[in-house]
Amino acid sequence: TGHDLPVRNLPLPPDFAWGTATSAYQIEGGALQDGKGKSIWDVYTHLEPSRTNGQNADVSCDHYNRMPEDVELMASLGVDVYRFSIAWARIIPLGGRDDPANEKGIAFYNHLIDRLLARGIQPVATLYHWDTPQALYERYGAMLNTDEFRADFERYARLCFERFGDRVKKWVTFNEPYISSIFAHLNGTLAPGHCREAGTDTKTEPWRVGHTLLLSHATVVEVYAKEFQSSQQGEISVVLNGHYYEPYDASKQADIDAAERRMVFYIGWFGDPIYLGKDYPDEMREYLGSRLPAFTAEERELLRRTAHINAFYGMNHYSTKYARALPDPPADNDWTGNIEESAVNSEGKEVGPVSGLGWLRLAPEGFRKLLNWVWRRYHLPIVITENGCPCPGEDDVAVAVDDKFRQRYLGLYLDAISRAIYTDGVPVTGYYVWSLMDNFEWSAGYGPRYGIVHVDFATLKRTPKNSAYYLRDTFKSRRATST
Ligand code: GBH
């Protein structure tokens, strides 16, 4: 188990790419600088600060004003790739297809991309990492309105391809559509916290949002393929997150089925339509019935036409859980397939040692199994677009910088990738650690620190943690010694 496994520093292929990942709202600050419009996060954090640990990201790491320093830092760590996101409201302040673009916002990303390339770092750009322009939410409920959102997202994406696509060769449309659907429109723990408003319907709205995101993704993938790919020669996909699930009681078929069903609800929901061009998985239709929207003939065609264009499977992965089948019929707003999740199984065994967050446990075997699960289902090369953890006891600066738990976590997760590649034959082509630096962790504010670089939020001073040096060194030796 994760409790006693030694880190082996197993080999990785010579062309395996290592990188760091961030997102705009979490690190940029400059909330209203240079004409940026408000996103739903700018509004959500100020409306009711208790929802985000009393904190907001008006300033955060102030990356917007310290970008050159941050690129130098990455260069000093030897990263190959930097995955960042573009703040939609920075380049189209009101977000809509007829709203004006903001040249100053565009200039920021141009400078970032140019500096990265000058330092030999490949930019990977995410179009959407949760920061919907507030104006679109006010106008029509944003992703609750499929046709409007799809048309506005298409224009935004086209603008990004036009202005950045000569240099950005890897695009991600949406970061974790599952989270935008469930956490932002059902549990309400992320902006816009829609289910907390009057007149909302948590039985159907999360599935409508998922539908919007799928179709908006496919639309933009087709725009890229038709209008940009032949001249720009880049690739595009989506990023899906998901835990690996083990059965709560491995001797019970119901729990074995539950673990599989939980992953289908998490990943297959988006993965099957996007990567296979198919309808939603049968298990979802069975449990959700008419709560799940139907695809029109035209929409099915779009999915079928675009499935093969997605060039890689973007995986955000953090941890493993146990899944237990519930005996009663599901609640009328159930979103799990009637499953209860836990960190401990029927024999009282923990899924792995706990990190700085209760839900995030060190479980590298689950990661390896998930890599196999995804490869078997989608047959696409896999890029790990996020992986990492906060450490226990990191409020103490000394512990935070000498981050032993994180070094072990990263070491073991990289070993799992090596085993998946060389023993199981799963093509994993890159690994982007979450995150480059400590940042605004959404509803948890500045509590959890995921960075491989420490940020003192009083002075904004950056200090690489030992895990940053560990990654720099291990990638040098793992790749050099690979066979
Ligand atoms: C990613 O989301 C995000 O892309 C990134 O912005 C974020 O900073 C990073 O991870 C770290 O959180 O339901 O008990 O299993 C991950 C989203 C956050 C989803 C925690 C599940 C709830 C725990 N996840 N979450 S639980």
Task: Please tell me about this protein's structure.
The protein has 483 residues and is an alpha/beta fold. Helix content is 42%, strand content 14%. It is built from 16 helices and 13 strands. An eight-stranded parallel beta barrel has the order 1-2-3-4-5-7-10-11, surrounded by six helices. It has a three-stranded mixed β-sheet with strand order 6-8-9. β12 and β13 form a beta hairpin. The longest helix has 28 residues. It binds ligand GBH.
Shape: globular
Tell me the series of helices and strands, N- to C-terminal.
EHHHEHHEHHEHHEEHHHEEEHEHHEEEH
Could you estimate the helical fraction of the residues in percent? 40-55%
The proportion of strand residues reads 5-15%
Structural class: alpha/beta
Mean pLDDT over all positions: 97
Oligomer kind: single chain
Q: Bound compounds, please?
A: ligand GBH
Tally of individual helices = 16
The strands making up the biggest β-sheet line up spatially as 1-2-3-4-5-7-10-11
Radius of gyration based on Cα positions: 21 Å
Main sheet? Answer: 8 strands, parallel, barrel
Which stretches are poorly predicted, pLDDT < 50 over at least 5 residues?
Answer: none
